[in-house]
# Entry
Amino acid sequence: MKILSLKIIFALLLLGFAVSAQERPGKVEFSDSNVLSGVISLTPGSQLKIQAGKEVRVLALERVVEMRFAPERSEMERAWRFKEAGQTAKEFFGDPYPVLYLATTVTLGDGEKISGHLYTTVLYVADGDNVRKVILLAKQRGKEGEKFESVLYPKVISFGDAAAKTEATIRLKLSGLPAKAQVVGITRGALVRLEAKAHGANGEFEMPSALGEKFFLAAKSGTKMTVGWPSSPDQKLVSLVQSALTNAEDFFDSRQVLGAIQDAANAEIYSLVLAMRKGQTHGTSDQTWRLEIYRWKQDDDGRVMLAGRDYFFRGTVGKNQPPPAVELSEKLWNLHPDGGVWSNDSQ
# Structure
């Protein structure tokens, strides 16, 4: 394992990346029984993400009791190349090397266990002035000629302090929404999309837990979408993001920035964007639209770089027809817990 120079961490700070507040004492036990102890933290601005079946869960480090990794399957592979350009025939070379595919089980503070495949994650383990980097990979590859037993991987990551409690679902009570409105949340940071389901009386919903992370919320009914967002946009930020979008070309040829907010602690900007494809695609004149959240990283010089995105809602409209109207809602922005239920009613 390589020691991560403190100079690299200082360089990250100079680039505007704040060190994560999620730092916890713990230890990493490797498959060869070696143990690395110290203060464990994530790469600044990142989060734990795990694919559990069809669902992607985002996890706050403070809510994790332990993480266990075990080989789900193993294979011996060899390097290869195509024999001829444009042909599918392959030729293999070199000695076989072992590959382990790891499954992850995460135990949370309330005892819930989540099993699946962890997205590539970088941890830092600090012991005094030494900071070591540990890369968590779902696929671990050994060297040519090695056996499966030679592949080194983190086996158990555990923490020395108590994990925060969490809930499996979030209950929402939202006044002012039309009947049968669709409600979707998007977590900050990892931008995981959470679909809420109607539960109980009109305006009551259950949504998969954001597991301690803050989240954006939006509702859609017919041709109208309502997004929890400050109603007075920061025009300076909006202009900055609108300019940056010219360097983030994609399928959509029209993107309107409806709002932008700054997360100074993590040197990030979040923008609300209504994207639309006005050009013809796949032989149809229908126009595709998406209401999205973009996450941007910002350096000390004010430059921004797209770091992630996900959508609330998407659909199509006929040629030259407008997409659903978007309304910014302070009430939906200022959600507050009321007896365990997140509500947009005034306190």
